[in-house]
Write a structure and sequence with these properties.
- It is built from eleven helices and ten strands.
- By secondary structure, the protein is of the alpha/beta class.
- Strands 1, 2, 3, 4, 5, 6, 7, 8, 9 and 10 form a ten-stranded mixed sheet that branches.
- α2 crosses α9.
- About 45% of the residues are buried.
- The N terminus is likely disordered.
C-alpha cells in the first residue's frame, strides 16, 4: 500500500508542478520575445510594436532577442527548448510553415512543439519589374514573355515568401525552366539588383519594394492579396490582373512552448490580442504595410495549420530543397 501511494504521488508530481506554476504571478521576470531574423525587418518591426505594449500591460520590459540564421531554425529551436512557463515568445512568419516541410529533420517539430497565441497581421507581395527595362507589360504579358525567354527572378532566400511567389508564377505562367531562381540573403539586396537591372522580376514583400515603386525605378504589376492595398491603391490585385492562382500573403504570428499551462496560455492570448488591438500599435503596423488581424488562438492555430499544409504541397511538387 505504501509503495502504491508513493508511485501515485510521483506520477502526480508533473501535474501538481504545472498547477503550481500556473498559480504563480505572471510574468514574474522579464519575458523574452525571440525574433529569428535580423533587426529592422518586417517581423522584427511587428514584434517590437507588440513587445512594447506588452511591457506596458505587464509592467515589465519584454526583451527582444534577435536569433537570426539557419533559415529561422536557430531562433525557433531556442524557443522550443525554452522553459514551459510562458516567459518565452517566438515570432514566426510564412517561412516557418514552409520549414516544416523544407527541413524534415529540424531539431524541433513545428506542429507539435508550439502553441499559437495569435496571428498578428498579414501583408501582400507585389509582382515587380524594372521600370526602365519593362515600361509597358502588364501581368499577363509578363507571363507570356516568361514562356518565350529566360527570366532571372530574385528572392530573399530559398523557401522565403518571395521564392514561393516565383514558384507560383512559374506554375501559373507555365514558364518551366525559363524562370531562373536567384536567391539572396534578404529582401533588400534583391530589390536593389532588380532596380539596377540585374534581375528581370520579383514577387517581393510589398514593404521591401515600396520605396523603389514610389521612386519610379520599379513597376508594380499586381499585388498578391485578395484586395488592393492602401499603400498602392492604383496597383491591381492578381485576380483583377487575370491570374488569381498567384494569390499569396506573408504573415506573422506569435507562439510559445506547447507545454505552457493553459491558464498562462489564456493570459498570453488575452494580453497579446490587447496589445495588437491597441489603436497606436495597430496604426503603426498599418503604416508599415500590415493588415492587422489579432485573431484568437483557436482561429490562428487553424490558419497556421492550413498554411503549413498548403505550402507543403508546393514545396514537394516544385522540388524545393534547402541551400547546400
Amino acid at each position: 500500500m505504501i509503495r502504491r501511494r508513493t508511485t501515485l504521488g510521483l506520477a502526480a508530481m508533473p501535474f501538481l508542478s504545472r498547477m503550481g506554476l500556473a498559480q504563480q504571478p505572471f510574468p514574474d521576470r522579464n519575458p523574452r520575445y525571440i525574433v529569428p531574423f535580423p533587426p529592422g525587418g518586417l517581423t522584427d518591426i511587428m514584434a517590437r510594436l507588440v513587445a512594447q505594449k506588452l511591457g506596458e500591460i505587464w509592467n515589465r520590459p519584454v526583451v527582444i532577442d534577435n536569433r537570426a540564421g539557419g533559415n529561422a531554425l536557430i531562433g525557433a529551436d531556442a524557443a522550443a527548448k525554452s522553459p514551459a512557463d510562458g516567459h518565452t515568445l517566438l515570432a514566426i512568419t510564412l517561412t516557418h510553415a514552409v520549414n516544416a516541410t523544407l527541413f524534415p529533420n529540424a531539431p524541433y517539430d513545428f506542429r507539435r512543439d508550439f502553441s499559437v497565441i495569435s496571428l498578428l497581421g498579414s501583408l501582400p507581395l507585389a509582382v515587380v519589374v524594372n521600370a526602365e527595362k519593362n515600361p509597358r507589360d502588364d501581368l499577363p504579358a509578363l507571363a507570356a514573355r516568361s514562356r518565350r525567354e529566360r527570366l532571372n527572378v530574385g528572392s530573399s532566400g530559398t523557401g522565403s515568401p518571395p521564392h514561393l511567389g516565383l514558384e507560383l508564377f512559374r506554375r501559373v505562367a507555365r514558364a518551366g525552366e525559363n524562370i531562373v531562381h536567384v536567391p539572396y540573403r534578404g529582401g533588400a539586396p534583391s530589390v536593389t539588383d532588380l532596380a539596377g537591372g540585374t534581375l528581370d522580376m520579383m514577387v517581393s514583400n510589398l514593404p521591401e519594394c515600396l520605396a523603389q515603386i514610389r521612386g519610379g525605378r520599379l513597376r508594380a504589376l499586381a499585388v498578391t492579396s485578395a484586395e488592393r492595398h492602401p499603400l498602392v491603391p492604383e496597383v491591381p490585385t492578381v485576380r483583377e490582373a487575370g491570374l488569381p492562382e498567384l494569390e499569396i500573403t506573408n504573415w506573422t504570428a506569435v507562439l510559445t512552448n506547447a507545454a505552457v499551462p493553459p491558464p498562462i496560455l489564456a493570459r498570453l492570448e488575452r494580453d497579446v490580442m490587447a496589445a495588437i488591438g491597441d489603436a497606436t500599435v495597430s496604426q503603426r503596423a498599418r503604416d508599415g504595410g500590415f493588415q492587422v488581424l489579432g485573431w484568437d488562438s483557436a482561429r490562428s492555430t487553424q490558419f497556421v495549420r492550413a498554411e503549413t499544409d498548403r505550402w507543403a504541397t508546393l514545396v514537394t511538387e516544385a522540388g524545393i530543397k534547402p541551400d547546400a
